[in-house]
Inverse folding.
């Protein structure tokens, strides 16, 4: 028997043992099912990453849109009646690909703008810009919708963003398919183009984006700082320590001369941070998070 056949045989055997253990255990709750999966991991029937993903899948079925949405106050939006030269800086600085378009205020989302749709208006012979020509319909979902149901709807409709509405029909926030998938598989890097092996991305004057697992040592070397790494190894750990809790997306904290804003985080860890270097410095101060409206 060759190595490939032997590998397939071992895989079939491992899956068979896993299924048998599930049947024998007859878990009657999610906690019991997780315990069975952990036993399978201990018996090397699956690796740690697979176990983590399966636990995350179970968790997603219990989470609702309100648990991970970007709140209205933190949405990066463009105004329907703004001219092109005022919209472009928002597009460039945020580096997002999709933007809610608002009417009179942030609670009134009238559609979605795709950054790529603006390309036709660039250049000396470009036509006159009119937002209504490129405005796309928005998808609206209630805060109470379960994430596993929303993920299925995203897949079927091929939409990537939905506007979350409150009980009065106003926009309460937004959620993307990447937000849901990251609850299962972890960070998906799409809007932040890090070079291979890089941990910190310069986005503008005194503005940076960094992976939360960037070590304190690497951070100090990049910024010529002297943060201590006695109690934590990464800047994500430093931010969590400064806040005193596992932060939600949008929470900020000032540490030394820097303001750290959580861009991506889940129930297990901080994943991506925006960093602003502030020449005035200051003490560690926390400001608004997801609950701020």
């Amino acid at each position: 028997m060759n190595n490939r056949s032997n590998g397939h045989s071992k895989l079939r055997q491992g899956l068979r043992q896993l299924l048998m253990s599930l049947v024998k255990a007859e878990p009657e709750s999610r906690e019991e099912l997780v315990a069975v999966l952990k036993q399978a991991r201990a018996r090397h029937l699956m690796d740690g990453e697979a176990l983590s993903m399966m636990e995350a899948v179970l968790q997603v079925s219990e989470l609702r849109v309100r648990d991970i949405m970007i709140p209205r106050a933190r949405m990066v939006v463009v105004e329907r009646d703004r001219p092109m030269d005022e919209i472009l800086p928002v597009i460039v600085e945020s580096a997002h690909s999709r933007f809610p378009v608002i009417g009179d205020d942030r609670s009134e989302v009238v559609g979605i703008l795709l950054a790529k749709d603006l390309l036709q208006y660039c250049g000396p012979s470009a036509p006159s810009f009119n937002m209504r020509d490129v405005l796309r319909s928005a998808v609206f979902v209630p805060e109470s919708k379960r994430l596993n149901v929303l993920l299925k709807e995203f897949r079927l409709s091929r939409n990537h963003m939905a506007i979350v509405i409150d009980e009065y029909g106003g926009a309460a926030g937004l959620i993307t398919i990447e937000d849901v998938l990251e609850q299962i598989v972890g960070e998906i890097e799409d809007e932040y183009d890090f070079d291979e092996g890089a941990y910190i991305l310069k986005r503008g004057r005194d503005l940076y984006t960094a992976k939360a697992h960037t070590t304190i040592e690497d951070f100090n070397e990049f910024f010529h700082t002297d943060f201590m790494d006695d109690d934590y190894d990464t800047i994500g750990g430093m931010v969590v320590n400064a806040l005193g809790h596992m932060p939600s997306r949008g929470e900020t904290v000032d540490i030394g001369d820097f303001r750290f804003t959580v861009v991506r985080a889940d129930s297990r860890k901080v994943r991506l941070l925006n960093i602003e270097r502030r020449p005035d410095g200051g003490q560690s101060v926390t400001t608004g998070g997801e609950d701020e409206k």
